[in-house]
Automatic annotation (TrEMBL):
Domain spans labelled C2H2-type: 17-47
Molecular function as annotated in GO: zinc ion binding
Species this protein is from: Aphis craccivora
The keyword Zinc-finger appears for this protein: yes
PROSITE patterns: ZINC_FINGER_C2H2_1, ZINC_FINGER_C2H2_2
InterPro entries reported for this sequence: Znf_C2H2_type (IPR013087)
Entry keywords, A to Z: Metal-binding, Zinc, Zinc-finger
TM spans (from-to): none
Name by which UniProt lists this protein: C2H2-type domain-containing protein
């Protein structure tokens, strides 16, 4: 109150005071005497009696504004009350609590912002701690001090009101002390600790000894202590899962994954693997969360300098597989130890403290405080990750990969691994034989140095650490050996292309905007000689994926080395899948066996250690899930942060401690800065905001008006850039391609949506292992997708050398891979796909029996578990496959179709349009008529004299042939079964009709069926050569015959063009042109009898052109071909013919 008098009413020393308490009218000349009077006379008063405020008279100024006439109030004034000070008119100031400016809160917020600014500088890897506090000093000197002087000068001259003057002084003081909470490392740490954002690291002693040390340049004996740094794991785990609903989100994902893994058909995450299910057995009905740890050395000095490897650091990171591990902020530091200390003193002394914390996290767990209450969570170590040397070292296996027993998964010796094509389960390491190896204590005979300290972790054993690194094993290992052999073969052995041409095409290849930063340097002969290309893992990945588009047009089909490359490419694609089924794991195992076998036989080389590790990948996937979820790419990127910071500081005295402190400040900054957009992992920039052109589509699909979402041309979502013009893929029965038109973010939920248009894909080119996109990018539809419904990040559309738009889809989930390798089996993995739709339907149906597609289509003919191949073939022939699902649901098969009557059709197709019903009824009646004419096919007994002298069937051939029903068989396996059952099959052919033959031996009908015919033919006539070889040898003779016999002008012109371009044509094109022109030699002589409208009989004679066009049908695109076939099918059954997409001289597909 006294302060109020002095500030608001400008009281002076000579002011007088009059007491108005309970009619007391005594006056006083100063405040002290008035205060004594109040204490003496009026200290007791009735409760709740009104208390008049005294009248104050300022003798120097008797203006009414300096007088305060009393008003009554209670003894206690609530903080929300309105206090009025009244004079003759009214007291000049009226305060209401809501309008009061709370300077203390604002100043505290200002100082907190200064802390955030300081932490943001410390978060920058290019600034040392010393740099940051030096920046503070510069800001104080060059910014804060001038502003402080400005405020002082302004208030002295322009502000006369005491209360405003006082407020300005407070603001000035706060501004002067901007970095009050963080002006030193000590004060910053204290502020962070008070706000529960920081905990000191633990320095632990590894070794302490008396040794020669340098003291001020003098060498003396003293204590030499080796120390490691352990970060506060309990604190970090707790804070991580208390932020941004991380615990709730992780548990929600965990529950979803566990519930979806009950059928054991899909593995898309570590927690669905066999290893995790064993680890959690002791923790039933408890909350458990897995985490991975990773160990690796990194060099902080110049690797080419004089101090290289002197200060090498072993970093141990950890991450949580239930969070997004692709973001570096979700990879955390656990410990830092000098590499030389681990080498000198061993793993036990260096890791003992860490092991104790790991066990405590598992056994005792941590209480996590959430908005929904506190929950106790047990954190269990899932895997220890690293490269092969790092894992072998920390697990105490052989550190040399030229040792007799280098493998940490099995006990195969070095000589065996060089020719071991598949995993031998009898040789796998386990806890029993591991204990025996430890007891033997002979690393040369066992590959085990000693018992690993990691075995002290409660739910961990080094023999069950099913961890591999796809990056080091494949892209920094196998790819180098394979690609060098392949390039050497094509440039030196067969000379299909030169190294200069390969480099030219590689450097000028259209990589697209996404992969443009991963172009590798040129390949030199020395690189090929040393079997090591000068490429990073990421550059090698790009090179291998686009190699087929770079040179595939130069490689002939059926080339053995090219088939090997495509097989290897398929292995990589499968390993990069986001989910696996039992079928795809089995298929991968077969591909790896084939790859390793062919590597040895084709290149006359032995398998390298990384080739051997590849045979263990199927087992690792079964236990730990997709290997891309625990590869080293992101952990290696985390090293970069440490290296950058190490380069910004000059001290090397205790570099692990400096790096650990840096990480703690980065972690505090990460926790302190969070908002809904960051929680949803969305990064945007206002410059990319635009107005939407698809408001009607958004309203119709999402029911959102234009003010309920923001439209962007580019965003970052979960670390991935999406922008207009990028392409996304999705698998719905087949690979679908979408182009991003706009990106929208829903304001209420911060959900990302993509407005896209679907682009037509023409076909899958298995020779290039790529999809050919429609050149005009024909649009199928416009729709809206979410990131979750897409198969991974954006992809490129690349223009091939021939000018075609190709899609090398590397974002394949398991369903895409199973679809592709099923198609590949039918096309022998290397010929351009030419397969009828019924076979594709069968493949898709078989895959659907074990796959759950994201968006099953309405009336999908491929979504049933039961598959009726005959019915499907018939419906496809009628172009009515859309009714297949309805037929199956209502148990309509071929037998039911025979007996259908008019009243049955509405019962079956009540949900379909009248057009479909009319077509279906017409086709069924035609089908019934055809059955009455000829109910069964004639047998082949009289026409197969070649099988009259067949010997007895092979032993157990019936059982062997039953394996053909396995849809996962590769084509070489199919051929092998056919060779082992030749007599059994030929006897079957002798005794059955064509329908039964093709039903049991359906592989004859597949595109590679001609190879099976060759097997039978060569068995019957072993002395006769293959027709293909004879034809190739006879080509020159045929050309000479054509020159003599072709007379008509049109075909003569074709022959002239053929002769002029003969050296430039492919083998396929040569054969096509010759077979086309042979119709001029074998002139058609048949006639067709016809009758005109008057009934008069006539004859139609076919020309050479008619004969040619009925034998070889040429269309520029697959769309045109489909239209032609549709018209031909309406006129009756299509006779055998050759279909060519492109031209005779440039066939794209046959």
């Amino acid at each position: 109150l006294l302060a109020h008098y002095k500030i608001i009413h400008l009281l002076k020393p000579f002011s007088s005071y009059e007491c108005c308490e309970y009619d007391c009218t005594q006056t006083f000349s100063n405040l002290n005497s008035y205060k004594r009077h109040i204490d003496r006379k009026h200290t007791t008063k009735p409760i709740n009696s009104p208390t008049p405020i005294p009248v104050i008279n300022n003798l120097s100024n008797n203006n009414a504004e300096n007088e305060c006439i009393y008003t009554t109030q209670n003894d206690s004034i609530e903080i929300n009350d309105t206090i009025s000070i009244v004079s003759d008119n009214s007291c000049p100031v009226t305060f209401e609590n809501d309008d009061i400016l709370n300077l203390d809160d604002l100043i505290n917020s200002y100082h907190t912002s200064a802390v955030k600014f300081t932490l943001s500088l410390l978060d920058n890897n290019n600034f040392s701690r010393k740099d940051v506090f030096e920046i503070q000093r510069k800001i104080e000197k060059y910014i804060i001090e001038p502003v402080e002087n400005l405020i002082t000068s302004f208030t002295q001259k322009a502000v006369k009101e005491p209360i405003l003057l006082s407020s300005f002084q407070t603001i000035k003081t706060a501004f002067t002390n901007t970095f009050n909470f963080c002006n030193s490392e000590f004060s910053l740490n204290n502020w962070l600790i008070r706000n529960n954002l920081f905990q000191n690291v633990q320095e632990f002693t590894i070794n302490e000894e008396i040794n020669l040390v340098s003291d001020s340049g003098e060498i003396i004996y003293g204590d030499k202590t080796s120390k490691g740094i352990l970060l506060p794991l309990h604190f970090q785990f707790k804070k991580t899962f208390e932020q941004n609903e991380n615990l709730a989100n992780s548990l929600s994902l965990y529950e979803k994954l566990i519930n979806n893994s009950s059928d054991q058909t899909q593995i898309k995450h570590f927690v669905q693997g066999e290893l995790w299910k064993k680890k959690i057995l002791p923790y039933q009905n408890k909350i458990v969360i897995p985490y991975f740890m990773y160990i690796d050395d990194f060099e902080i000095n110049n690797p080419l300098g004089s101090h290289a490897s002197v200060h090498s650091i072993s970093a141990i990171y950890y991450s949580f597989p239930l969070t997004d591990q692709s973001k570096l902020v979700n990879i955390y530091l656990a410990a830092l130890i000098k590499a030389v200390d681990i080498k000198d003193f061993g793993n036990d002394l260096c890791l003992n403290k860490l092991i104790y914390q790991i066990n405590d996290l598992e056994v005792n767990g941590i209480v996590i405080d959430t908005p929904h209450g506190s929950k106790k969570v047990h954190f269990i170590l899932g895997l220890f990750l690293g490269d092969n040397l790092g894992l072998n070292s920390i697990c105490e296996f052989s550190k040399s990969f030229s040792a007799n027993y280098f493998c940490r998964f099995c006990k195969a010796d070095k000589s065996l691994t060089r020719h071991l094509f598949k995993e031998n389960s009898l040789l796998l390491r386990n806890s029993i034989n591991y204990a025996e190896d430890v007891r033997v204590n002979d690393s040369k005979q066992t590959g085990v140095y000693k018992e690993s300290i990691l075995n002290k972790i409660i739910s961990f054993h080094v023999t069950s650490n099913y961890s591999v690194d796809l990056m080091h094993d494949t892209f920094e290992g196998i790819c180098h050996y394979n690609m060098c052999h392949i390039i050497n073969y094509y440039t030196d052995d067969v000379k299909i292309f030169s190294l200069e041409l390969l480099n030219y095409r590689k450097q000028n290849f259209n990589y697209g905007p996404i992969e443009i930063g991963n172009i590798s340097p040129i390949i030199k002969q020395a690189h090929l000689k040393n079997f090591h290309l000068k490429m990073s893992a990421r550059e090698m990945m790009t090179f291998v994926f686009y190699f087929s588009l770079m040179v595939g047009d130069l490689i002939p089909e059926d080339d053995t080395i090219w088939v090997f490359f495509l097989n290897f490419l398929e292995i990589i694609e499968i390993l990069l899948s986001s989910q696996f089924s039992n079928g795809s794991i089995l298929h991968l195992q077969r591909l790896i066996e084939k790859h390793n076998s062919e590597y040895v036989s084709l290149f006359k080389d032995t398998l390298k250690p990384k080739h051997h590790l590849l045979v263990h990948y199927p087992t690792v996937i079964k236990n730990s899930g997709p290997p891309k979820h625990f590869w080293c790419f992101r952990f290696e990127a985390k090293h970069k942060e440490m290296k950058l910071y190490a380069h910004s500081i000059t001290s090397r005295k205790n570099i692990p401690l400096s790096l650990a402190k840096k990480f703690q400040y980065k972690y505090a900054y990460q926790i302190l800065n969070s908002n809904p957009m960051i929680i949803n992992e969305i990064n945007t920039n206002e410059i990319y905001i635009k107005s939407s052109n698809y408001n009607e589509l958004v309203l119709r699909v999402l029911n959102l008006t234009s003010d309920q979402f923001l439209c962007y041309s580019q965003i970052q979502f979960k670390g991935t850039t999406y922008k207009i013009g990028y392409f996304l893929t999705r698998f719905i029965e087949e690979v679908c391609l979408y182009e991003i038109l706009e990106i929208i973010i829903v304001k209420a939920s911060f959900k990302v949506q993509f407005i896209v248009q679907q682009i037509e894909i023409d076909f899958f080119n298995s020779h290039l292992r790529a999809y050919q996109v429609n050149k005009s990018k024909s649009i199928i539809l416009k729709t809206i997708l979410t990131p979750d419904t897409c198969n991974g990040p954006p992809v490129n559309i690349n223009e091939s050398v021939s000018g075609n738009l190709m899609l090398r889809n590397i974002n394949m989930d398991d369903s895409v891979n199973e679809f592709n390798y099923s198609i590949a089996d039918l096309t022998n993995n290397h010929s351009i796909m030419n397969i009828n739709s019924s076979q594709i339907a069968k493949i898709i149906c078989d895959n659907n029996s074990s796959q759950n597609f994201t968006t099953p289509p309405l009336h999908s003919p491929f979504s049933d578990l039961h598959y009726d191949e005959e019915l499907m073939n018939l419906l496809i022939e009628w172009n009515l496959e859309s009714v297949y699902t309805t037929c199956i649901e209502k148990q309509i098969d071929l037998e039911a179709l025979q007996f259908m009557q008019d009243h049955h059709f509405p019962m079956v197709l009540s949900n379909f349009s009248p057009g479909i019903q009319i077509k279906f009824e017409y086709r069924v009646k035609k089908y019934q008529q055809s059955l009455t004419i000829n109910k069964e096919s004639p047998t082949l007994n009289n026409n197969l004299s070649i099988v009259q002298n067949i010997t007895t069937s092979e032993p157990d051939s019936e059982n062997i042939s039953s394996y053909l029903y396995d849809k996962d068989l590769t084509w070489p396996e199919i051929e092998d079964i056919y060779r082992k059952t030749i007599n059994f099959r030929l006897n079957f052919i002798k005794e059955n009709n064509a329908v039964e033959i093709f039903k049991k031996w359906n592989h004859y009908t597949m595109p590679m069926g001609y190879k099976l015919v060759d097997i039978d033919f060569l068995s019957l006539y072993p002395d006769n050569s293959n027709f293909n070889l004879i034809f190739e040898e006879s080509c020159n003779k045929l050309i000479e015959v054509l020159k003599e016999r072709v007379k008509d002008p049109a075909n003569r012109q074709t022959l002239t063009t053929f002769n002029n371009t003969l050296n430039d044509l492919t083998t396929d094109s040569k054969v096509l042109v010759i077979m086309y022109l042979l119709h001029c030699v074998f002139i058609p002589s048949s006639k067709k009898s016809t009758r005109d409208e008057n009934g008069r009989k006539g004859f139609t004679k076919y020309s050479i052109r008619d004969s040619q066009n009925s034998f070889i049908i040429v269309k520029p695109t697959s769309v045109d071909m489909e239209s032609t076939l549709q018209k031909m099918s309406e006129m009756g059954a299509i006779q055998p013919c050759i279909l060519v997409i492109g031209t005779l001289f440039d066939p794209k597909q046959i």
